[in-house]
Known about the structure:
Layout: H1 3-16, H2 33-46, H3 55-72, H4 84-93, H5 101-115, H6 119-142
Helix pairs in contact: 3-4
Amino acid sequence: MGKASRNKREIRARKATPTLSGPADEPAGGADRAALGTEALKRLLSSNSPGELSLAGAYAFGYMLLGYAEREGGAPDWIQACDPLDTLFLGAAFPQAFRDPSEFANLRDAWLRHLRGTAYGKSVQRFVREAVTARRRVRVAGG
């Protein structure tokens, strides 16, 4: 299949896929946004086999842990200040517990140094680029 055909197929698939770009209180495609998000998170978490966590799976676990910490309370204050890279590490390190923000930051930095130069490291770099790009788009759209 040529590049043009592949691009056309991707465009058709994007048009056929419902988006969540409407107002926050408006259902997307007749479904509740929270339910869609929950289902997507469940699918992502269940797609990772034991002992083999994908980058997306690690982020999903980190996101889930942040949500759990917020819902249940009692989490350290620093955990609420996690950015996307911190969230990725939090999920990858699960079930590791951290005594304080310094231990968390030191272990996160050691993990990133360990990944440098590997395929995983390149994936993390791409993840960071995408997160920064998304943040810029949100800022521009928000005013």
